[in-house]
Design a protein that fits this description.
Elements (H helix, E strand, L loop, with lengths): L2 H22 L11 H11 L10 E5 L5 H9 L4 E6 L2 H10 L6 E5 L7 E6 L11 H17 L1 E11 L13 E2 L1 H11 L3 E5 L6 E7 L3
Parallel strand pairs: 1-2, 1-4, 2-3, 4-5, 5-6
Antiparallel strand pairs: 5-8, 7-8
Length: 212
């Protein structure tokens, strides 16, 4: 995807999520999720890329107000965290919400300014707005390239699934083919790839483990 198209998409996405935050505040609905229970379940899947213990660094691409950081605090207190989001209002909210955490920082950007051990992206591929499937898939691939480039040991991401019930689908959302993305990750990024599609939501999570 060319840079101008990518910039235009990111601008649309930033506006969309800024409006959601203004409507719903620092809640799951403020980042366009249904509720806390599904958000926690989602974080549990994404976190399977992380080690069970020890210190590591993490880039959270599309961090919103930093909900994943809260999820990780008890489980991984020594995690060094960078939150990245294209919405300045989201980053402002995240920075204020987590002002007391010295190991966390937040930046308004399209991609991390550092290479971390791991990268995570939750929900950033769902809202395509008026973009075609082809345009959005190009954007998705270029963003996965960013995740790959900025993570040393692995990354995880989620997408709405093309196996969703037809009557539940919405025109402004993007439903990815999990088999297509598994194949892409396996061919392009790493030999060790896991597809998680068994946790009760209309989505899937992919884990990409790199060989150190």
């Amino acid at each position: 995807m060319n840079q101008d198209a990518n910039t235009a998409i990111l601008s649309e996405v930033a506006t969309y999520y800024t409006d959601k935050l203004a409507q719903h505040g620092e809640t799951p609905r403020g980042v366009d999720w249904n509720g806390t229970e599904s958000q926690v379940l989602r974080f549990e899947q994404l976190s399977k890329i992380l080690p069970a213990s020890g210190s590591f660094s993490l880039n959270d691409l599309g961090c919103g107000y930093g909900a994943l950081l809260e999820h990780l605090q008890d489980r991984h207190p020594s995690c060094s965290y960078l939150g990245v989001d294209v919405s300045p209002d989201m980053i402002q909210a995240a920075g204020q919400r987590h002002a007391g955490l010295s190991q966390a920082r937040f930046i308004t950007a399209a991609e991390p300014d550092q290479v971390a051990d791991y990268g995570v992206a939750s929900g950033i591929f769902n809202v395509r707005l008026g973009r075609t499937d082809a345009e959005w898939y190009d954007y998705l691939q270029s963003t996965l390239d960013v995740l790959d480039r900025t993570s040393k040991l692995g990354f995880s991401f989620n997408c709405l699934t093309s196996y969703s019930d037809e009557d539940k689908k919405r025109d402004y959302l993007y439903y990815a083919d999990p088999c297509q993305l598994f194949d892409l990750c396996k061919r392009r990024y790493a030999r060790q790839v896991a597809l998680l599609h068994d946790y009760g939501l209309y989505e899937f999570t992919i884990l990409v483990r790199k060989t150190p």
